[in-house]
Amino acid sequence: MTAVTTPPKKQAQRGRPGQSSPKLAYLPIIFLAFAIGVPLLIIVVYSFLEKPSQGTGVKWVFTLENYKALFIQEKLDGTTALDTRYIKVLWTSFYYSLLTTVVTLVLSIPVAMWIATRDARKRNLLVALVTLPFWISILIRTYGMRQIVADEGPIGKFLGIFNIEWSILYSPPATILGLIYVFLPFMILPIYASAERFDFRLAEAAYDLGAKRMTVVRRVILPSIRPGVISGIALVFIPALGSFLQSDMLGGGKTNMVANVIANNFGQARNWPFGSALAVLLIVLTLLFVLIMQGAAQRRGDKVELV
Amino acid sequence: MSHTQTSSRKRGKLVNLRNFPGFKPTAWFVLFFLYSPLLYVVIYSFNSSRIGAVWESFSVKWYFRVFENTDIQRALKNSLQVGLVATILSTTLAVMAALGLLRMQRAGKAVAMALIGAPLIIAEIVLAVGTLGLFIAVGVPLGKVGLMVAHTAFCIPFALLPIRARLSQLDMAPFEAASDLGANERQILRRITLPLLAPAIFAGALLAFAISIDDFITSFFVAGPGATTLPVYIFGMIRSTVTPEVNAISTLLLLFSGSVLIGSYLIQRKRR
């Protein structure tokens, strides 16, 4: 669109009286372009640059090697072979996030429905209890979980009475448990928000009209809380995919997720360009997931706004 | 509730569609699951033993250690300074964005929303290393100022959430009336818009502060050695040695979060 007609100023003001000028948003947009847009751009640019022979940072020479190195390994004798290490890291991240999403979903639907059907007083208290962990540092919550699942922690001590060995810390199950623990409230709250709005008289009407109990659940209750379920899936899966602390503190560095590998390349490994290529891949995967979710939601006629 | 809801009577059987078997135990299990690690942290912060998992006797010595530790005090000061500046800046920018976006053209709005939404969707680690790259490219020294800029950026979407929600519910009549009566934009903003938005702005600021204080990954990469924040310091403590001191700090932070939440709840209830 090239032809832009500027309406007389008075007219524009009349369009919606009393509203502020759009100019007010210019400063925040410029700031975000600098503090969010430019860093993302830098990551994309760095992923196509070479690593300097020593030190950190980048050498301004264009290359596609970083992307090649994600999948192909060059051996000392010059031959190349498929390198599955980073594919495994991506698969691990995807798999852990998926598992986290499924478990939190299965737990959250009953919890959200149960809270939504309590009386107002009890409901407010329960919602506050579920919300409180959101205000508590994720670092502290993960540290608490580490002490619970530690070999000599309460679970280990209890099982020790029966001579059952308990040793999951610094292994994949501990990471997954940590992810479930940290992200569970993010699944409960949006589903609760949907369930709370649901008019249970509709379910009773369906039942009175002859629907079986399970049919009521499947055809009436579940479709009503679907927007909450979709938001919940997005709110759990997306941050889980990029999570760092849980695999670092509970997985003990043995079960690396993609964020840990990116962090390592910008830290000890000192390979910024390769870390950037991984970061670009993570962005692409995240956006792909968002598009799939939005597509699925739209096809079903749900309006889902992630932002 | 004393009065039974309109339970469907069918085939002589009373069916309650509000209670499903297993929901209640699941809910209690989930609450137990959510709180047991926190409870453990609080209880073991009073353990005199050096070894975290072995209960020796009740003691408050780790709290004394925390209060004597000047590194923790410095880290806390850094966290509070960065958190306060980021809260004020991000909330101000969020209010401006929320109001300005209402009348913005579609294309501009899409760009703005993409930038605002990015920190919610893109993994924090990506933005953190990107910001590190930016600061080094532009020559911003790693430290408190850079940290304030980075925190302000990712706090904006959180501060914006309640403000936008409130704005969409507002009745436009007072604005139209004020405009008809000859008030200019500045007067409307100061006398109508901001007072009506005040609770949402407060909620947004609280959210931004919580996000900033809690932040670990960005601070870890951008703080540099001089501006270590509390989460970065705690992370270092957990990594290097196991010390019950961390349980004591955590308990103090839990107390702080809890009282802020209860305080804000009471303020909001008083307003109503």
Automatic annotation (TrEMBL), chain A:
<feature type="transmembrane region" description="Helical">
    <location>
        <begin position="94"/>
        <end position="116"/>
    </location>
</feature>
<feature type="transmembrane region" description="Helical">
    <location>
        <begin position="274"/>
        <end position="293"/>
    </location>
</feature>
<feature type="transmembrane region" description="Helical">
    <location>
        <begin position="174"/>
        <end position="193"/>
    </location>
</feature>
<keyword id="KW-0472">Membrane</keyword>
<dbReference type="GO" id="GO:0055085">
    <property type="term" value="P:transmembrane transport"/>
</dbReference>
<protein>
    <submittedName>
        <fullName>Unannotated protein</fullName>
    </submittedName>
</protein>
<feature type="transmembrane region" description="Helical">
    <location>
        <begin position="24"/>
        <end position="49"/>
    </location>
</feature>
<dbReference type="InterPro" id="IPR035906">
    <property type="entry name" value="MetI-like_sf"/>
</dbReference>
<feature type="transmembrane region" description="Helical">
    <location>
        <begin position="125"/>
        <end position="144"/>
    </location>
</feature>
<feature type="region of interest" description="Disordered">
    <location>
        <begin position="1"/>
        <end position="20"/>
    </location>
</feature>
<comment type="similarity">
    <text>Belongs to the binding-protein-dependent transport system permease family. CysTW subfamily.</text>
</comment>
<feature type="domain" description="ABC transmembrane type-1">
    <location>
        <begin position="90"/>
        <end position="293"/>
    </location>
</feature>
<dbReference type="Pfam" id="PF00528">
    <property type="entry name" value="BPD_transp_1"/>
</dbReference>
<keyword id="KW-1133">Transmembrane helix</keyword>
<keyword id="KW-1003">Cell membrane</keyword>
<dbReference type="InterPro" id="IPR000515">
    <property type="entry name" value="MetI-like"/>
</dbReference>
<keyword id="KW-0812">Transmembrane</keyword>
<dbReference type="GO" id="GO:0005886">
    <property type="term" value="C:plasma membrane"/>
</dbReference>
<keyword id="KW-0813">Transport</keyword>
<feature type="transmembrane region" description="Helical">
    <location>
        <begin position="220"/>
        <end position="241"/>
    </location>
</feature>
UniProtKB/TrEMBL annotation, chain B:
<dbReference type="InterPro" id="IPR000515">
    <property type="entry name" value="MetI-like"/>
</dbReference>
<dbReference type="Pfam" id="PF00528">
    <property type="entry name" value="BPD_transp_1"/>
</dbReference>
<dbReference type="InterPro" id="IPR035906">
    <property type="entry name" value="MetI-like_sf"/>
</dbReference>
<feature type="transmembrane region" description="Helical">
    <location>
        <begin position="145"/>
        <end position="163"/>
    </location>
</feature>
<keyword id="KW-0997">Cell inner membrane</keyword>
<protein>
    <recommendedName>
        <fullName>Spermidine/putrescine transport system permease protein PotC</fullName>
    </recommendedName>
</protein>
<keyword id="KW-1003">Cell membrane</keyword>
<feature type="transmembrane region" description="Helical">
    <location>
        <begin position="27"/>
        <end position="46"/>
    </location>
</feature>
<feature type="transmembrane region" description="Helical">
    <location>
        <begin position="217"/>
        <end position="236"/>
    </location>
</feature>
<keyword id="KW-0472">Membrane</keyword>
<dbReference type="InterPro" id="IPR051789">
    <property type="entry name" value="Bact_Polyamine_Transport"/>
</dbReference>
<dbReference type="GO" id="GO:0055085">
    <property type="term" value="P:transmembrane transport"/>
</dbReference>
<feature type="domain" description="ABC transmembrane type-1">
    <location>
        <begin position="76"/>
        <end position="267"/>
    </location>
</feature>
<feature type="transmembrane region" description="Helical">
    <location>
        <begin position="192"/>
        <end position="211"/>
    </location>
</feature>
<feature type="transmembrane region" description="Helical">
    <location>
        <begin position="248"/>
        <end position="267"/>
    </location>
</feature>
<feature type="transmembrane region" description="Helical">
    <location>
        <begin position="114"/>
        <end position="139"/>
    </location>
</feature>
<feature type="transmembrane region" description="Helical">
    <location>
        <begin position="80"/>
        <end position="102"/>
    </location>
</feature>
<dbReference type="GO" id="GO:0005886">
    <property type="term" value="C:plasma membrane"/>
</dbReference>
<keyword id="KW-0812">Transmembrane</keyword>
<keyword id="KW-1133">Transmembrane helix</keyword>
<comment type="function">
    <text>Required for the activity of the bacterial periplasmic transport system of putrescine and spermidine.</text>
</comment>
<comment type="similarity">
    <text>Belongs to the binding-protein-dependent transport system permease family. CysTW subfamily.</text>
</comment>
